[in-house]
Amino acid sequence: MKLQKMIAALSAAAIAAACTAIPVSAIDSTSEAPFTAFLCMSAAGTWYELDQTADCMTAATIEEDGSYVVSITVPEGGGSENVDLLLLSTNINGYAFTPEGGDILTDTSVSIVIDSIFIEHTDGSVTDIPYNGPSAGAFATENNGTDYRLNVLNTWGNNVADIDNTLPAPLGDGDTISMEFTITGLEESPFAVAKGDVDKNGSVDAQDAYATLVESSKIAIGGSGEFTEEQIALGDINGNGSIDQMDAFWILMYNSYVSLGQTITWEELLG
User: Fold this and answer.
1) What are residue 39's DSSP bridge partners?
2) pTM score of the predicted model
3) Does 154 share its domain with 58?
């Protein structure tokens, strides 16, 4: 009876949430290549991020371990002598590369190393930006708590200042700031996201059941679901090829066993 009440409560909340448009990031978190990496920067009052200023940014598509380049070309009126924030963002879900129960930052197989940061000026000259990192707090996660990022200059939240905020040469209109970096540990990838962990936070819990109910409710009222193909694969517990309320029920059942300290497999649960 208690479980039925929990399902009913979750269902009511899910239906309400399904009727509300929820903005999503232009770059969805993923546990499998290809991954995406891009620069985020704040300078001269302008915030540069891929889903807002994509026309002036060059992202990197990461298929495997290796070296990559990301950049931002400053538009007219965006020149500055200072940078207020600079970081390398990715959509790499760290839990796919971290053992169960491990720390997403210290126990991961993934390593990101900055090789160089430089400005290519419109006159053809190049200015190197001295990099003194990585300092403590440089390797971190995005706001979603799962995707990796590397802070270069971020005194707003991580207290990282591995470059000086005053650039060695002004960043003029049309100039391009670039970062070369090397990433390793992706090919090892020994840790898979668990079935049912649709939010990919490293555990199968009531939040996964709630998210699955929200998704199924959107579909049930004729809307378009927002799950990625990966999330559908993780959340389709009964294997019928779609997300429905029974998937949410099974996820909540699984979580109930785990919460009681019991060990059970999906095969055992589904019979």
Assistant:
1) 88
2) 0.63
3) yes
